[in-house]
Structure formats: structure tokens, C-alpha cells
Amino acid sequence: MNEKITVITGCSSGFGLLISIELAKSGYHVIATMRDLRKQDLLLHEAKMNGVESSITVHELDVTSQTSINNLKAYIEKIGRIDVLINNAGFAGAGFVEEIPIAEYRKQFETNFFGVIAVTQAFLPLMRAQQNGLIINMSSISGRMGFPGMSPYVSSKHALEGWSECLRLEMQPFGIHVALIEPGSFKTNIWSSGKHITDQSMQKESPYFHYMKQIEQYIEKGEPKFGDPIKVAKKVAKIASQSNPSLRVPIGKGVSINLFFKNFFQWKLWERLFLKILYK
Ligand SMILES: NC(=O)c1ccc[n+]([C@@H]2O[C@H](COP(=O)([O-])OP(=O)(O)OC[C@H]3O[C@@H](n4cnc5c(N)ncnc54)[C@H](OP(=O)(O)O)[C@@H]3O)[C@@H](O)[C@H]2O)c1
Q1: How far apart are CA 114 and CA 163, in angstroms?
Q2: In angstroms, rounded to a whole number, what is the distance separating the alpha carbons of residues 51 and 45?
Q3: 10 Å Cβ neighbour count for 104?
Q4: How far is residue 218's CA from residue 150's CA, in Å, rounded to a whole number?
């Protein structure tokens, strides 16, 4: 393969699928990975529609399985290079802290955090030997600010942000760059099949039922205004072409303004505003 090689995780839907198409259109050879290969038809259909099917290879990868990661690693080592790694796979764990079994937090971190570490570790030796490479981690506005009823997701993305800062500082001297994409709300499956709400917080007997319902209603009300995920895919393609992108790339409606308020208002003022909207 003469083209630059990019590996993307979680390409069965949403951002991962669209980023695969955008990067293939930009001239990359994309190794589009997904944990269930039976879901590849949508990606292959889109690739065909865009005339880029020969630039996309689908490969199995479950980011929580070291065996699966090792198989992909062996495949990439045969190709002999990797230019861009995009850690995109993720899901959103929700519920109230008191009611979320610790096992659910662990599951969340296995995918959104430890999965990213394990996949990255697999490819760092190759990138270091090349003395170049770009790692793009799909974070979220939830990696910068808390949200009630979403603590598994929010904490996994906060951990990803801190870890990415360390990785960036460690790898820059070796010619490897790290960037975080921080989207607001975009129309993908993360709001349906990708959202795992702890059952207990959805039961009428729960002391949090009313609060959880209000949060759900707030999210539902906002849904028509969620962004088009193609914007994120195009932004990622642009970042991939930069030799040294910024560490953080916030994107989406209201994201910059929310970050501004969070960073420049006193927390007490910020939480008063926030709770006024969310808890009536
Ligand atoms: N959409 C938003 O508003 C938004 C905002 C901020 C950040 N994000 C982030 O964007 C990323 C992509 O999500 P999305 O919005 O595109 O949602 P999505 O359509 O639900 O896509 C999530 C992808 O991750 C995959 N995945 C989940 N667990 C996996 C595992 N263990 N191994 C491999 N793949 C796995 C899913 O595969 P299956 O089909 O097999 O489940 C799917 O391909 C996530 O990291 C999410 O946190 C999304």
C-alpha cells in the first residue's frame, strides 16, 4: 500500500463510519475496525456510493479484547506502517452514582479508557520506529465538564483527557502527536443503542426517578438540534492532515460557550445556572 495508513476503531456506525469515508476520500488507506463484522454492510455501502471501496479494509477489533488487539497489531505489522490512529469506539453509561453497580463503571472504563490505552500501546512501537504518527482520541464535551446522571461516561472521558495530555508530552520528542476531539451532541447511535442507563434509575421507586426523567426530557428536547456527524468527520479529516494539531479540538453547537462559562465563571454560579435548567 502506497497511501498513508489510518486505523479507526468503532466504524460500524456514527463518527467512525463517516470518518472512514472522509479519510478514504482524502487519499488514506483506511483500516476500518469494528467488533462485529456482521455490521460492515452499511460502511461498505457508503464506501461504494463514494467510490472509495478499494481504499477501505474492514478488520475485526473489540477494544476490550487483548487477543483481538493483538490480531490487528499483527496485521498492521505486516503492512509495515501506521500514520494515523483514531480511537473512536465508545458508549455512554448513564444513571445516578448511588444506583450504578461498580461493575458498570468498570465496563465503561474497559471500553472508553482502558480500550484506548491498549490499542494505542499496540501501535506506539511502530510509530516510534517510524518517528512519526498521529493519535486522535475521541473525547467529548463530557471530558471537560460534568453532567448529572452521566457519571460513568463523564469520568471515562475526563480520564481520557488527562491520559492524552501525558501521552502528548511523552511522545512529542519522538515525532508522534496527540489530539483530542471534543464534540457536543451529534446525531449518532450513542443516544440510542450506545446509551446504557442503569435500570434502577429508571424505576418509579428510585429517589432519582424524577431527576433522571427531567434529564432525559432535557436531552430529548435538544435532539432536533443535535449536530450532523459529518461535520465531526470532516474536522477529523482536517486534523489528520496537520503535522502538529492542537491538543484540544472542541466542536459543536454551544460547546465553546459552555466551556467559556465553565472556565471563567465561579463553579457556584455555573452550577446554579445548570441546576436551574435541569432540576425543577
Ligand atoms: N454522538 C455524540 O453526540 C458524541 C459526542 C461526544 C463524543 N462522542 C464520542 O464519539 C465516539 C463514537 O460514538 P458515536 O457517537 O459515533 O456513537 P455510535 O454510533 O454508537 O458508535 C460507537 C461505535 O463504538 C463501537 N464500540 C462500542 N464498544 C466497542 C468495543 N468494545 N470495541 C469496538 N468497538 C466498540 C460501536 O460498535 P457496535 O456497533 O458494535 O456497538 C460503534 O461502532 C464515542 O467515543 C463517543 O463517546 C459522541
Answers
A1: 10
A2: 10
A3: 17
A4: 13
Instruction: For the chain, report the end-to-end CA distance as a whole number of angstroms.
Output: 58
Q: What is the CATH number of the domain that holds 264?
A: 3.40.50.720
Using the atom order of ligand 1, give the atom closest to the CA of residue 194. Answer: 20
Q: Rounded to the nearest whole angstrom, what is the distance from the C-alpha of residue 271 to the centroid of ligand 1?
A: 28
Q: Which residue has the cell 465508545?
A: 90
Nearest C-alpha to atom 29 of ligand 1 is from which residue?
A: 89
DSSP states along 35-55: S-GGGTHHHHHHHHHTT-GGG
Here the cell at position 210 is 424524577
Please check whether residue 6 is in contact with residue 83, taking contact to mean a CB–CB distance below 8 angstroms.
Answer: yes
Percent of the chain topping pLDDT 70: 100
The residue segments making up the domain with residue 28 are: 5-278
102-109 helix and 151-171 helix, angle to the nearest 10 degrees: 40
Q: What's the whole-number mean pLDDT along residues 87-115?
A: 97
Which residue type is seen at 2? N
pLDDT digits (tens, 9 = 90+) for 33-59: 999 999 999 999 999 999 999 999 999
Q: Give the total number of structural domains in the chain.
A: 1
Per the CB < 8 A criterion, the answer to whether 110 and 31 are in contact is no
The whole-angstrom distance between residue 77's C-alpha and the CA centroid of its chain comes to 25
User: What's the CA-to-centroid distance between 91 and ligand 1, angstroms?
Assistant: 5
Burial 222-232 (b: 16+ CB within 10 A, else e): eeeebbebeeb
